[in-house]
Amino acid sequence: MKPLLSKTTKPFIIYVLIILVISIPAYYLVVDAIWKHELDEHNDIVARKTTSQINSLKLTEEKLIETIQLWNDVQPSTNIRKLEKNDNLKDSIFIVEKPHDFLDFEDIDRFRCLSKIIYLNQKPYRFNIETNIEESQETIFFISVTTVILFILIVGGLLVLNRRLSKSVWKPFRNTLDKLKTFNLNQQTKIEFSKTDVSEFDELNQSLSKLIEQNISVYKTQKEFTENASHELQTPLAILKNKLDILLQNQDLTEKQYQIAEEMNRALSRSSRINKNLLLLAKIDNKQFENSEIHLDELLNQSMEILQEHFEQKNISVKTEISDNVKVNGNIGLTEVLINNLILNAIRHTSINGSILIRLSQSEFEVSNSGTEKLNSDLLFKRFSRFSKDNNGSGLGLAIVQEICKSQNWTIDYRFENNNHIFSVKL
Prior knowledge:
GO cellular component, one term: plasma membrane
EC number: 2.7.13.3
Largest sheet: 5 strands, mixed
Catalytic activity: ATP + protein L-histidine = ADP + protein N-phospho-L-histidine
Oligomer: single chain
Number of helices: 10
Radius of gyration: 49 Å
CATH topology of the largest domain: Beta-Lactamase
Order of helices and strands: HHEEEEHHHHEHHEEHEEHEE
Low-confidence stretches: none
Transmembrane segments: 12-30, 140-161
Protein name: histidine kinase
């Protein structure tokens, strides 16, 4: 991602560069046109001045011819001659390209020429004058070079100025951003934003303060609800289960009544588990658990001993590859839930006489069980998704595992290889 400054500066530089490219030929056309206009005025003034000065001498025809000849000899850029028979008596302005008549090198130069009818002793003569205009190209070249240098200085100065100004102008925004990065909803502490002299930043800080206050209020309400629900729901569920247990022990129940009561007992037990799991998910979402260092190998061995009875009930062959002294950072209660849920999920979906492999290394915890068909990865970690006819589970086990992994910065992955379902947790 690009910073805001580069996004605003880049279009500006491109725009200035385009204007610079356009300005060079524009300079050339404008300066060349002005130059030609000035030369035309200069040539016309020379023609008028020459006519006036010669006529002021009041020369005879012979002296006039001698003076014209002398003028043509000493003024190589002008020429006065008699009219030709086919002369149309019209003035004309044109450009010729030729080498200088009085210079040694043969470089071709441009000349702005004026051919004008003048009257000497009241007789018409053709007056021709030419002025070199090659200097206009040199002028354009130096103007272009100067423009480029100024462009570099302006753009370079603006870039440096923008960077320095951005540090001071955007400093309140950076301060706000830093405070937001360190904000922790669990601590429920309000952020005191510094006052700024920029109305937009001040408005942003006010909006953020209101938003944080609302979030803290919602968080407190949700947390209170979670705690209340944990107590209020569990108590009646426990009472109902206790009453059903007493009812099931009643010898006067008929077979049909006993079956109904047993079904109610199973449904109530499942409701209790679902309630506990939903409350656990809510607490994980609210980040109500503290992390510490855990000896994961010891915790896993303890869970294996507790779940040994489940392995024996289905005659499951269990193989373990557990490394020693595996330490991770996490919550011990949540980690125990993660281990139990993954192993119980493997037991539940392993057929009788099947096999389970449990591996633990310094970087990965893996549980694999025998199977026949790959599971749907898109629905695997969604809440209340089911992949078997077993109704004993709550449908929340893998969803809880995924949330625990997120809360402890771990990642869980599923794959199906060699007729084995493999769940691996990257620690």
